[in-house]
Amino acid sequence: MTVTHRQHTTRRPTPAARSGRAPGDGAAPAPAVSSVPLAPPSPVGHGPGAAQDGAWRVGDPVGRRHFVELGEVELERGGVLPDVRIAYETWGRLNEAGDNVILVEHALTGDSHVVGEAGDGHASPGWWNALIGAGQPVDPDEWFVVAANVLGGCQGSTGPASEAPDGRPWGSRFPYVTVRDQVAVERALLDRLGIARLAAVVGGSMGGMRALEWAVTHPDDVDRCVVLASTPYATADQIAWCQPQLLAIRSDPDFAGGDYYDTDRRPVTGLGLARRIAHVTYRTELELDDRFGRRPQLGEDPLRAGERGRFAVESYLDHHAGKLSRRFDANSYVVLTEAMNSHDVGRDRGGLEAALARVVADCTVVSVDTDRLYPPRLSDQLHAALPRSTRAHITSAFGHDGFLIEEEQVGRILREALSRG
User: Fold this and answer.
1) Which residues are catalytic?
2) Mean per-residue pLDDT, 273-299
3) What does the pLDDT read at residue 345?
4) Which of 10, 260, 342, 372 is deepest in the core (most CB within 10 A)?
5) pLDDT of 6 higher than 80
């Protein structure tokens, strides 16, 4: 199946035309969780004998997810993706004024499960568990928080593992999507929920790309924008690190050109190699050396006669490779990595400075001092070009992953950002 091509352009409906309650119309506050119920024609899921992978499918446990059916979505590179479904989670309540909404954007292998336990449909616990909750930086008694699984993902939103209109998984037929496409889908989701504007959009890494794109594409809809450990455009170095990851997945014979869903095999070797490469860029040389040094894995001395053992750092990378393959889909890894490569807020907008001049949100630009993948210089460049920007820093031995690990510092920065009007 190919993606349908159209000539017209879809325009975002005005607030009066949006479905759901328009903020400020005097109606009662929205319920704690707003949703469109999922009513699949038949359960599919991971049935007995099916090859296991990290993709959520209709028929699997829903967990905290809710769903909105958006219909067809026009794509930046042309064509229309039909029958788009977005999975999302919420915390708190929408107030009568509709001005307390925070959109939280996940990174590459994250999803809508920002906080919460693993199990009951969620393969892993929340990835920012210290962010949302009573007494936390984002208190649901004050804020209405929305987090969606990104377009192209594998945790409930339409992606390569989802069924195409012919009833088969999209697989290799899933189109190239950009960060702008992903933000357009999020805007459509909020329209369906009756949300006109955002008190804040917050994201790190790939999520920071979408947060910034929100502020540029929809400047009148965003009051605050918090970008952590991210960039205004994908650099040559970042794209270069992505290439061997993509090649590792595509070179796995079990990848089958992206059409492995109807087989009993999964490209876990290629996905694991991709994760190993990426994980090294997420950490620092000093942290790995201090943590592992040249120590062998227990009982696996590489210099011992007989079967070759592993160094401890090799075992560490093997662990993360296996962990990801159990909760993430290889095709989504490819689609989302290519979306990150597409990121450039200045594209077709007169360049970086002209694009960022559109932003009216109060921005907070945050870097991690040891980040070798998204180095602080990129945050400096972003901060300098934004009309209203506060520069903040995370000090961490953990490199890029510091935006997830250094929860106390991130919490302080978020509190300060949300306190500014």
Assistant:
1) 205, 371, 400
2) 97
3) 98
4) 260
5) no
Out of 9-23, 57-71, 375-389, 395-409, pick the least confident.
Answer: 9-23
* Model pLDDT, residue 201: 98
- Residue with tokens 């490569």, as numbered in its chain: 341
Picking from 55, 257, 44, 254, the residue whose alpha carbon sits closest to that of residue 161 is 55
- Per-residue model confidence as pLDDT tens digits over 317-361: 999 999 999 999 999 999 999 999 999 999 999 999 999 999 999
